[in-house]
Design goal:
Elements (H helix, E strand, L loop, with lengths): L2 H13 L2 H8 L3 H15 L4 E4 L2 E4 L1 H24 L7 E7 L1 H6 L1 H11 L3 E7 L2 H9 L5 E6 L7 E9 L1 E6 L9 E2 L9 E3 L5 H12 L7 E3 L3 H9 L5 E4 H9 L3 E3 L1 E2 L6 E8 L6 H24 L30
Parallel strand pairs: 3-4, 3-5, 8-13, 9-10
Antiparallel strand pairs: 1-2, 5-14, 6-14, 7-11, 7-12
Helix pairs in contact: 1-2, 1-3, 1-4, 2-3, 6-11
Protein name: HTH-type transcriptional regulator YwqM
Keywords: DNA-binding, Transcription, Transcription regulation
Family: Belongs to the LysR transcriptional regulatory family.
Length: about 325
């Protein structure tokens, strides 16, 4: 069975006609017809019903389709592998929640672009559970997640750094000098939330609800920046990743309330599918991300901001890596 016959079959199915498949492949229509006939003869089953000028895939054709798709994929991977010694190029599709896209990924992407300018990066925002599913389905090459560390079927997980959460209030808020704030203290406060389905929102609400606290006043936003501005304006309190409010805390525009964050232990993680072939472009990105993760962990250790991680450190620290961390993603990706 010739692979080109299977690729032609797949193209006919995708195009919906022999004529369109011929145009797409640059063949004469008679060549398409002869290849399909050769394949049908070898398999001893019809792959298409030909009714007038229309074609319809038969049951046998539908059963063959996933195998043809897999062979097409392997055909592409084989060509990529043979070109791997040449300049690294291609496209990487990466998923990330807003907080990590804004405050963790810029330095990684900047270094990667400096070293591999021929690779196109497509960054897709989303919720962690959505991106986990997209990696499992092959829609993303890799994803960065902010959630509790847990094994997920079919995924390789790399913990880059443990993240702290911060319950923030506007400067001068009465709870700033309250000492340890408890869920009951928030009963009559207005809480500003990220979108439903956000991991840390879900954990925070669960923490409150477990103590019998169901705040009546709450506002929902789809942007961390909008939440920060509204908290600074005195509209309420919010729980956010500390990396996203670091500057505002340092400038005194926000204050961090003393809060039991034990139920909110989250980490920045990187996930890829276990069965995914790692192209040279992907391997290079993973390696750079791991080095940045090592730098973040070192920074947390030096300043006593993080929790211990029970896994090996990867790679050496890059001298200027920390300076790149908050670079703006407005640079063309």
């Amino acid at each position: 069975m010739e692979s080109r016959h299977l690729l032609t079959f797949l193209t006919v199915v995708e195009a919906g006609s022999f004529t369109k498949a011929a145009l797409k492949l640059g063949y004469a229509q008679s060549s398409i017809t002869s290849q399909i006939q050769a394949l049908e003869t070898e398999l001893e089953v019809p792959l298409f019903d030909r009714i007038g000028k229309k074609i319809k895939v038969t049951d046998a054709g539908r059963r063959l389709l996933p195998y043809a798709q897999e062979i097409s994929k392997m055909h592409t991977l084989a060509k990529d592998a043979l070109r791997s010694h040449e300049e690294i190029s291609g496209t990487l599709t990466i998923g990330s929640p807003e907080s990590l896209a804004a405050f963790r990924l810029p330095g990684i992407i900047r270094e990667y672009r400096q070293n591999f300018p021929q690779v196109k990066i497509m960054l897709k925002p989303g919720l962690c559970w959505e991106m986990t599913s997209m990696v499992q389905n092959g829609e993303l090459d890799l994803a960065f997640l902010l959630q509790p560390a847990e094994e997920t079927k079919d995924l390789e997980l790399e913990i880059l750094v443990q993240e702290q959460m911060a319950l923030v209030a506007p400067a001068g808020h009465p709870l700033a000098d309250h000492g340890l704030v408890t869920p009951s203290d928030l009963k009559h406060e207005t809480l500003l939330y990220t979108e439903p389905g956000c991991t840390y929102r879900t954990l925070f609400e669960r923490q409150l609800n477990n103590q019998g606290v169901f705040p009546e006043q709450k506002l929902e936003f789809w942007s961390i920046e909008a939440i920060k501005q509204c908290v600074m304006a005195g509209l309420g309190l919010s729980l956010l990743p500390q990396i996203s409010v670091h500057q505002e805390l340092a400038e005194g525009k926000l204050v961090k309330l003393e809060w039991d964050d034990r139920p909110l232990r989250l980490s920045t993680q990187m996930v890829v599918h276990k069965k995914k072939w790692k192209s040279p472009a992907l391997e290079a990105f993973l390696e750079i991300a791991k080095r940045h993760g090592a730098a973040w962990r070192e920074e947390e250790t030096l300043y006593g901001l993080g929790h211990d991680l029970n896994h090996n450190l990867h790679g050496n620290l890059s001298e200027n890596m920390n300076k790149n961390r908050n670079e703006n993603l407005e640079e063309t990706i």
